[in-house]
Amino acid sequence: MSAPHAATPYAREAAVALEAVRRAGHLCRSVQDGLDPGVLQKQDRSPVTVADFGSQALVCRMLAEAFPDDPVIGEENADALRQPDQAALLEQVTGHVRTQHPDVDAATVCDWIDRGGRREGAPRFWTLDPIDGTKGFLRGEHYAVALALIVDGAPVVAALACPNLGPAMDADRGDGTVFTAVRGDGTRRWTLTGGDGAPARVSDLAQTSGLRFCQSVEAAHSSHDDAARIAQRLGVTAPGVKVDSQVKYGTVARGDADAYLRLPKTLEYREKIWDHAAGALVVEEAGGRVSDIAGRPLDFGRGYQLEGNLGVIVTNGHLHQDVLAAVKALGIPGSA
């Protein structure tokens, strides 16, 4: 099995990140595969909570061992797990983590999770979304484990595990898909189980009429009405691709879709960095472009939110200016 990005200054970081999201992806698969269909019907979030906590514990444990001085801005903390009335949930989380670390105790699992509790930025830090795409996870569909190393406000290493993404959008999940990227060294595709990475490249599409948008399944995540108006203005006739989580970034990075819009519903809302850092680098190193709705690069150096940006636009690069122009022409708030 070849090492990811071995010729770069971040070879060790890339190798650790790849292994970390693979291990977390296996844990998440185990939790999702064990879901009772009745639980899904009740919209009970406890299974995904188990996966969230277990995934963060595994990734943070690996980062602590390999890079003990690096802080981690993650989505979760273990405060709730430490409450007496959550003892059963903590035992479930610990049980899943023990499949990979048999001797670990519950207190140590909580400590591993809390390593991801930082909220302030630093010159060098990691950001982690242990389960991106909660509702997709609960439906038994797509979700992602997203990990990125931020240096001086920009992602330089990314690992994006998409356990239910097969070799093509309409294919069985097989061994899943993992994307890795290192700034200046491109994006590669792997599986959860190993093998040699293959280069990932965005599409070559340069005509807006053939553009394939990738959209969130959940309308609450972005303004679908504005996205429809943009598609109409661009003369888009191709059917869109609906998928949850940062898997959308993966579909653009490997050419299954050409663009993804995260349009703000209010001027006050700011995106969380863990929802975009890994995916942004994966797309950019595959030849695409990522900006906010005004065309500004995303600034990941201001803590846990994208304080200097509004919304997100992701494209194959060739169509980015066309999409930005359509957003501005339609008067989408914040695009000017």
Portion in strands: 15-25%
The DSSP helix count reads 10
- The end-to-end span amounts to 48 Å
**Overall structural domain count:** 2
Shape: globular
Number of strands: 12
Name given to the CATH homologous superfamily of the largest domain: Fructose-1,6-Bisphosphatase, subunit A, domain 1
Largest beta-sheet characterization: 7 strands, mixed
Oligomerization status of the protein chains: single chain
The helix-and-strand class reads alpha+beta
Give an account of the 3D structure.
The chain is built from ten helices and twelve strands. It is α+β, with helices and mostly antiparallel strands and 336 residues long. It has two domains: 11-200, 2-Layer Sandwich (Fructose-1,6-Bisphosphatase, Chain A, domain 1); 208-329, D-Maltodextrin-Binding Protein, domain 2 (3-Layer(aba) Sandwich). The strands form two sheets. Strands 1-2-3-4-5-6-7 form a seven-stranded mixed beta sheet. A hairpin with a 2-residue loop joins β6 (187-191) and β7 (194-200). α3 crosses α5 (106-114) and α8 (247-253) packs parallel to α9. The model has no long low-confidence stretch (mean pLDDT 92).
